[in-house]
Design a protein that fits this description.
Helices cover 16% and strands 31% of the residues. The protein is an alpha+beta fold and 283 residues long. The strands form two sheets. Strands 5, 6, 7, 8, 9, 10, 11, 12, 13, 14 and 15 form an eleven-stranded mixed β-sheet that branches. A four-stranded antiparallel β-sheet has the order 1-4-2-3, with no helix packed on it. A hairpin with an 8-residue loop joins strand 7 (123-124) and strand 8.
Length: 283
């Protein structure tokens, strides 16, 4: 794990506590490992210790993993990698695939199973519905996962979606509560006592006869949120077999996460990533 130091710190331990917010247990593991391996902590290509001072622009390397992801490896399918560095990975998930297994000891055909062979640690920051295609962010270390999880909770990761619908909608914000349908447990509905859900319709572009590409963003991430909100507006997504009366006529549901924007969890630089799957929406 490589880190470029943006500010001076009293020592490596202070950086791990304040910036990476490591637990005492993890810092102790680094200390114990460094007693046996002089290359556990490297600063500017030289061995260091937890007591070594850190200056601005130093390059710190920590050669230890505390947690290993334990998923069944499946190498039968290549997944499009849109962005990757030492800290996180962003890929485009095909429609019809789960993001993450419910049972890691049994399932082997989810997105993470097709990726894990190249990594010691890889965990999704968020998920997409099985029938939704597009961008999924994965953390490559527990530290980065904690930071990205917090950013997602604070709504600092902006996710943009394209959907194909049959009628025009004006830009608007949809605010409702969403809960599980009591009659069909696999469906979600707008209900008074559900969880708050906020969807923004940003624009709507006509591309053909009864064909409109609509761009949306989310403030919340409820199950089936976009699908439920568009169905609530009588504008169900084309190909949505759960919320549209004619969804069965199409091979797939036309909903995709095509763009994400956020600050890099380590360098704080602006990150914008686009999916190569966007062209699928033009029937």
């Amino acid at each position: 794990m490589n880190f470029k130091i943006l500010h001076s710190y009293q020592n490596v331990e202070q950086y791990l506590k304040i910036f990476l917010k490591l637990s005492k247990k993890n810092i102790h593991a680094i200390r114990m490992n460094s007693h046996h391996n002089k290359e556990t902590i490297i600063i500017n290509k030289k061995p260091a210790t937890l007591n070594t001072p850190l200056k601005k622009d130093d390059i710190l390397i920590i050669n230890i993993f505390f947690v290993q992801s334990k998923y069944i490896v499946n190498t039968s399918l290549d997944i499009i990698k849109e962005y990757e560095d030492d800290y996180f990975l962003v890929v485009s998930k095909p429609a019809g695939m789960k993001t993450h297994p419910n049972d890691i000891d049994v399932e082997n055909d989810t997105l993470v199973n097709f990726l894990i062979s190249d990594y010691i640690y890889l965990e999704p920051i968020h998920r997409l519905d099985v029938d939704t295609s597009g961008l999924v962010i994965f953390a490559k270390t527990p530290f980065v996962k904690a930071k990205l999880d917090l950013m997602l909770e604070q709504r600092l990761i902006k996710r943009y979606y394209n959907a194909l619908i049959k009628n025009n909608l004006t830009p608007q914000t949809i605010k409702t509560n969403i809960g599980r349908d009591r009659r069909e447990k696999n469906k979600m509905v707008v209900v008074h006592n559900g969880k708050s859900a906020v969807t923004h319709i940003l624009n709507c572009k006509k591309i053909g006869n009864e064909r409109y590409v609509i761009t949306l963003s989310l403030d919340t991430g409820r199950t089936h949120q976009i699908r439920v909100h568009l169905a609530h507006l009588k504008s169900a997504i084309i190909g949505d077999r759960l919320y549209s009366n004619d969804g069965y006529k199409y091979d797939k549901m036309y909903l995709g996460a095509f763009k994400v924007e956020f600050k890099h969890p380590i360098t704080n630089k602006n990150i914008t990533i686009m999916s190569q799957l966007e062209d699928e929406f033009y029937l």
